[in-house]
Design a protein that fits this description.
It is built from 13 helices and ten strands. Bound molecules: ligand PLV.
């Protein structure tokens, strides 16, 4: 069996985005991972460490963590049960079943599904696979930064990293990766959508808070509570984490622009990051002095996501642009 389940993804220079931002933009193409998102890095690693020869794994997911867990389980020959909330589109359920997973639909949002997954782990003796809150996940995700460092070569360092935040696992993993390669001083722009803003709300409150509801269409960013580690990083004076929000309309517009310009379809969770470029947010942060005017290369984590196809895109357009 292969040493790990994830691939070394391409790092692409993006000319159209570079023009907009005024510095070289590099895209880390995590959309091209097996299972369609960066999630396989951490979840593949965690499953290899914890779930070999187990009775099975259970994961609650907005979709992509579940797909990664189902993929890893299939490769390991272990059964997978994935619990998704009713907000997950049919194409997510289908994608999980195609990976050979048993799918259970429970509750309205991810937090409800997670409670059910925890219950199943207990009652059926399954290995619980958390989608964002575990050190093994962060360790797995960190590999993407090591790849970027190797691809850029010695002496080249990003001026900033742009990524999306759901429960904060990607953020924790990237920070781990930045630590590993000695890039702790690189600022991180942490994007969420309005209505799936658990990190931003925690930073404003000065403590971890739980959102009343998820009202954003970026369902894969829809954890009501950010993981403790992500919040603690946001409070650390050794790191620069800039937490910003975009609207669903801006995220959707970014998904469409990215499709037009790069011919790549990603989901809303990823559109939240891309919108920081397309909406002029990066420029604004520079003008406000929160990012340097002379910014080094911008590293965009194209986190990907499978909860999207042309039909889903059209339905989002109708919902959000009417
Ligand atoms: N999605 C999780 C959590 O959902 C899931 O279950 O799939 N980009 C994409 C495409 C994602 O799927 C996710 C997480 C993120 C970004 C954010 O990553 P996180 O949760 O580690 O901050 C509720």
């Amino acid at each position: 069996m292969a040493e790990h389940f994830h691939l070394n993804t391409p790092l692409l220079e993006c000319l159209s985005m570079s023009k907009l931002v005024g510095t070289t933009v590099y895209l880390k193409m995590e959309n091209s991972q097996p299972s369609g998102s960066f999630k396989i890095r951490g979840i593949g690693h965690l499953c290899q460490q914890l779930a070999r020869q187990s009775k099975g794994v259970v994961c609650a997911s907005g979709g992509n963590a579940g797909k990664a867990a189902a993929y890893a389980a299939r490769k390991m020959g272990v059964p997978a049960t994935i619990v998704v909330p009713s907000s997950s589109p049919q194409l997510v359920v289908q994608g999980l079943q195609d990976q050979g997973a048993k799918v259970k639909i429970t509750g309205k949002v991810w937090d409800d599904a997670n409670a059910e997954a925890l219950r199943l782990a207990e009652s059926e003796g399954l290995i619980f696979v958390p989608p964002f809150d575990h050190p093994l996940l962060w360790q797995g995700h960190a590999s993407m930064v090591a790849e970027v460092a190797a691809a850029l070569g010695p002496g080249v360092k990003p001026g900033a990293v742009l990524l999306s935040v759901g429960g904060g696992g990607l953020l924790c993993g990237v920070i781990q990766g930045l630590k590993d390669v000695g890039w702790m001083d690189v600022p991180i722009i942490a994007m969420e959508t309005v209505g799936a803003n658990c990190l931003n709300a925690a930073i404003k409150a000065g403590k971890v808070v739980t959102l009343d509801d998820i009202t954003s269409e970026a369902k894969c960013l829809g954890a009501k509570t950010v993981c403790k580690q992500a919040f603690e990083y946001s409070q650390s004076s050794d790191l620069t984490i800039i937490s910003e929000l975009v609207t669903d309309q801006q995220a959707l517009h970014a998904v469409q622009t990215f499709l037009d310009e790069e011919r790549v379809l990603v989901e809303m969770a990823c559109g939240a990051s891309l919108a920081a470029v397309y909406s002029g947010l990066i420029r604004r942060l520079q003008e406000e002095g929160r990012l340097p005017t002379l910014l080094g290369p911008l590293l965009v984590i194209v986190c990907g996501g499978s909860s999207i196809n042309m039909e889903q895109l059209t339905s989002l357009k109708h919902k959000l642009q009417s």
